[in-house]
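Input record (one chain):
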Amino acid sequence: MLSLLLSVLSTLVIAEFVLGNFANVFIALVNGIDWVKGQKLSCADRILTALAVSRIALLWVILLNSYATVYNPAFYSSEVRTIVYITWVVSNHFGLWFAVSLNTLYLLRIANFSSHFFLHLKWKAKRVVLMVLLGSLVFLVCHLAVVSLNLKMGMIEYEGNITWVTNLRHIAHLSGMTVFTIVHVIPFTMSLMALLLLLFSLWKHLRKMQLSGKGSQDASTKVHVRAMQTVISFLLLFFIYFLSRITSVWNSNDLKNNSVAMFCQVLELLYCSFHSFVLIWGNKKLRQAILSFLSQLKSWLKENK
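The corresponding structure, as predicted from the sequence alone:
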């Protein structure tokens, strides 16, 4: 029974990995081709491209970790574990903060408020996004420092020096969990605030439309709804991803060679894969491009039957 469950979860991992790579490579290719042709990419397109590249790296890291954890633990030497973990920290960080920057850009470009401060931020939207990304590097440096400390503690313990390393190991683990939680909760909170402000902006817009006797299905309403759908999908998927990572970290010694570890990998890949499809569908250019691709693929399959 457990072997059957593990086989099903492994199939899901491979399927999500393939679909996730397809979605992210598609985003990068569409925007990359436009850039090569000399077309100017918007700020959102540049963020989407960078997000897609970081997600591709994260997908490969999760797949490698899934294989090594469940099927080949001997593959995880101390050197390989260090490289994989640091690569995960970097790709996860940029994948997360590029998504937060995109949510922030949606808020500044779409929401309408009369506040002078908000209007100033709206006018400086690109600069605000850049400052968010640069500010996030502080969290990356802290996270890498704690990861390096944890890896160092693991090596000391492995070498047999256990006179003082046990307590230090617990302190390093708690520090790692604290930093891990902070670097994920802050961007989640920022995206949640963006969603609430978009909702409030939509409510004000609908109220204004009702008072003027106009319908509610105007362009601004549709843009608000589409942006909110994108942010909501990110929040839900990222919350699932965060819980799976917490489970993996707290029970890392008990999750080896069993279906629970693979189930966590399925949830993590779901975040990296499905959210990219949501981004494609929420972007007019990417939506038209993938519909055109699917139409051409359908025609090609019919011709080659």
